[in-house]
Amino acid sequence: MSKVTMQTVAAAAGVSRMTVSRALRDCPKIPIATRERIQRLAAELNYRPDPLIQRLATHLGESRRAPYTGTLAWITDWSNDAWKASPTILAMYRGAQERATSQGYALDSFNLREPGMTGKRLSQILDHRAIQGLILAPISHGGGHMRLDWRRFSFVALGYSMRRPLVHRAANHHLHSVRVALRELSRRGYRRIGLCVSSETNARSDNCYLDAFLAYQPSLPCDQRVTPFNPKTTRKDDLLAWLSKEKPDCIVAVDPLIADMIANAGLKIPADIGFLLLDWPAGRPHMAGIDQQHNLVGSLAVDMLVGQVYRNERGIPETPRTMLIESRWQEGNSILRRA
């Protein structure tokens, strides 16, 4: 039996090969009834795309690609563009912008907090400008949501702060980041390692920071286990009380201000206590830490999004996918190699 090709499907459907190609990619330029008929016929004929031909077609498409392909949207909900003051989000944006440019796209920023802006209004603006792909930046309040007409767009969220709707997302591998930090600190001789992370910051990691730390504790002898410091709001007096009670020899924290509180209390880093930034550099490049490579998270989100746009995937996905970026250890002067 001869191999079923795209031309075979085209002949059976009474349409051109290009129409079949577009229909199988859910191109909106093809009427939905025609798309469904061609897709149904392709399934009946047991048509399977040739991956080598698809790869060649992609290569030829990229070689013919104009310097400018279109525009992607960077969607935020921070008042007065306050997200630009966050080193984490700014690194994601720059990574996304660089990758978008390399793919022939511009990346324009839109803010849901602008006066008079609503989800419905922004959806209309994006539709009017023929912008199909959206990068959903971390939102201003963890565990929240955005309201847009999702049916019109392809989209990828950055991190875990947006909980509704459930969408494709790119994020750092927070669980593994904590494990890398704890194992390396242990290898360097620290025996009572404590975690300092606020409940809001932990929520933004989908609770991965605290979960990874607590999962690590049972592997330690009882005298090396430290109760984590996980307040709603970090206050100096509470932190010092925790230090006095738990007596950690090294602290792992996301917020660099924890180091300032420790120093102001008269403790010297690293002579008296080690300190590791879980989200390096956070303005402290001299400290040891975990580089979550936020720029690569932004770049990955663009790759995911461009693929959706190319495949004409619109709306809330039936099965959301999360893709993770690994972290890198960064040396610094805030920890010692202990005996």
Note down, in words, how this protein is organized.
There is one protein chain. This protein is of the alpha/beta class and about 350 residues long. It folds into three domains: about 5-65, 434 Repressor (Amino-terminal Domain) (Orthogonal Bundle), CATH 1.10.260.40; about 70-170 and about 295-325, Response regulator (Rossmann fold), CATH 3.40.50; about 175-290, Response regulator (Rossmann fold). It has twelve helices and 13 strands. The strands form three sheets. It has a six-stranded parallel β-sheet with strand order 2-1-3-5-7-12, covered by helices on one side. The chain has a five-stranded mixed β-sheet with strand order 8-9-10-11-13, with helices on one face. The protein has a two-stranded parallel sheet with strand order 4-6. β9, α11 (about 255-265) and β10 form a beta-alpha-beta unit. α1 (about 5-15) crosses α2 (about 15-25), α2 (about 15-25) packs across α3 (about 30-45) and α5 (about 85-100) crosses α12. The longest helix is centred in the last third of the chain and has 17 residues, at about 295-310. It starts with 5 loop residues before the first helix and ends in a 9-residue tail after the last strand.
Number of domains: 3
Per CATH, which architecture of the largest domain?
Answer: 3-Layer(aba) Sandwich
Order of helices and strands: HHHHEHEHEEEEEHEHHHEHEEHEE
Number of strands: 13
Low-pLDDT sequence parts: none
Biggest sheet strand line-up: 2-1-3-5-7-12
Specify the structural class. Answer: alpha/beta
CATH superfamily of the largest domain: Response regulator
- Helix percentage: 25-40%
Q: Calculate the mean pLDDT score and round it.
A: 90
CATH class of the largest domain: Alpha Beta
Radius of gyration: 25 Å
| Number of helices, where a helix is a run of at least 4 consecutive DSSP H or I residues | 12
Strand content: 15-25%
How far the N terminus sits from the C terminus, by CA atoms, comes to: 72 Å
What gross morphology would you assign? elongated
- Could you describe the largest sheet, including whether it forms a barrel? 6 strands, parallel
- CATH third-tier fold name of the largest domain: Rossmann fold
